[in-house]
Amino acid sequence: MTLQAFPHLMFDGDAKEAIHFYKTILDAKVLSIQTYGEIPAFPGMSFPEKILDFVAHARLQVGETEMILFDSPGFPRQIGNQAAIYVSTNEVEKTEQIFEALKEEGKVIGPLEETSFTPAQGYVMDKFGVTFTIVTETRN
Fold first, then answer.
1. DSSP state, 42?
2. CB of 71 within 8 A of CB of 13?
3. Which of 52, 60, 79, 103 is the most exposed place for a label (fewest CB within 10 A)?
4. Handedness of CA 38, 16, 49, 71 (dihedral sign)
5. Is 6 within 8 Å of 68 (Cβ atoms)?
6. Could you read off the pLDDT of 79-132 as tens digits, one per residue?
């Protein structure tokens, strides 16, 4: 049996923009992307014209981890901190670069700082309302 868990991020029509952003900031690789317009037709199911270009399902790979993204227009979503994406690097400079890019048009929740267990850690909500924990992990 195989069991996996992925971050699953819901957007309100801007998932394509988020995918491009995460490709740039996190060096994410797009494994798959399907719009509502690309979903094969089957009886009893249709989508409004205005969402056909929205993302129904996308899978990104960030390092060794995968994330799932989709647009869910009209479905209420609440921006909050119930879930976060934990991003670890082994270089302070890379941690700083990611933190700085994510905070553009976003919000710093906790500053990027040295702690008792890491030379750099910070919490930030990006411009899409997704919360990230960015950490430099050192191996002793």
1. B
2. yes
3. 79
4. positive
5. yes
6. 665 577 989 899 999 999 999 999 999 999 999 999 877 899 999 999 998 989
**pTM score, whole prediction:** 0.78
CATH 3.30.720.110 applies to domain 80-140: yes
Residue 123, φ and ψ in degrees, nearest 5: -125, 130
- Output the CA torsion sign for 103, 105, 107, 108: positive
Q: Measure Cα distances from 122 to 1, 23, 27, 30, 118 in Å.
A: 36, 20, 19, 26, 10
- Tens of pLDDT along 63-76? 999 999 999 876 66
